[in-house]
Amino acid sequence: xxxxxxxxxxxxxxxxxxxxxxxxxxxxxxxxxxxxxxxxxxxxxxxxxxxxxxxxxxxxxxxxxxxxxxxxxxxxxxxxxxxxxxxxxxxxxxxxxxxxxxxxxxxxxxxxxxxxxxxxxxxxxxxxxxxxxxxxxxxxxxxxxxxxxxxxxxxxxxxxxxxxxxxxxxxxxxxxxxxxxxxxxxxxxxxxxxxxxxxxxxxxxxxx
Length: 208
Ligand SMILES: O=c1nc[nH]c2c1ncn2[C@H]1C[C@H](O)[C@@H](COP(=O)(O)OP(=O)(O)OP(=O)(O)O)O1
Ligand SMILES: [Mg+2]
What we know:
It is a single chain. This protein has one domain: Alpha-Beta Complex (Maf protein), CATH 3.90.950.10. It has five helices and eight strands, in the order βαβαβββαβββαα. By secondary structure, it is of the alpha/beta class. Strand 6 and strand 7 (about 145-155) form a beta hairpin. The protein has helices at about 20-30, 55-70, 110-120, 185-195, 195-205, and strands at about 10-15, 35, 70-80, 100, 105, 130-140, 145-155, 175. Bound molecules: 2'-deoxyinosine 5'-triphosphate and magnesium ion. The site of magnesium ion has 2 residues, from loops. This is dITP/XTP pyrophosphatase. GO terms for molecular function: dITP diphosphatase activity; ITP diphosphatase activity; metal ion binding; nucleotide binding; ribonucleoside triphosphate phosphatase activity; XTP diphosphatase activity. Belongs to the HAM1 NTPase family.
């Protein structure tokens, strides 16, 4: 694949998830890239009609670049639970219902984590609790070219949820070789080991 080099300047983060946008901003900070989020620009949130992380990341990246005329970086990610045959996978966000919290629209992550745990519990106390977070980044250019980078982080699920940092399913995910959840470790430490950091390292090698 031919990579284009991203010049320091404007880039759209094609995500409406505040937790993700915060992480991507932190990961971009050291590269002189000045990102603006799709939400900041008032860009619409496209429907994620794909059945793979790759397809959805491309849908989101192309939608933002078409609407803004700027290169756009999208992230489609999710949790694959081994004992659930890889579910919720590409449907990870959908398992958390949209709800209003303190006047802001968000998702009910506690309910979603409970749903995963309920399905694991049905398989008995010795169920395999291993899981992996997946992150697929798509970078789309105004001329229609796009490239995709995939990252993974292995780990296991714990219950009940622990920690208040991060976002989404972080309170139940313990990365491999660690004892604390993603929501209990410093954001900088999450950025050193996460699925998003893994995908990001490949993006950096390709386009920066
Ligand atoms: O580091 C993570 N820590 C915890 N949970 C995570 C993480 N990474 C992805 N996840 C979960 C939550 C997220 O909502 C879903 C991805 O769904 P996904 O469609 O890619 O994102 P989204 O709908 O929340 O925002 P958007 O599409 O606007 O980028 O997987
Ligand atoms: Mg989404």
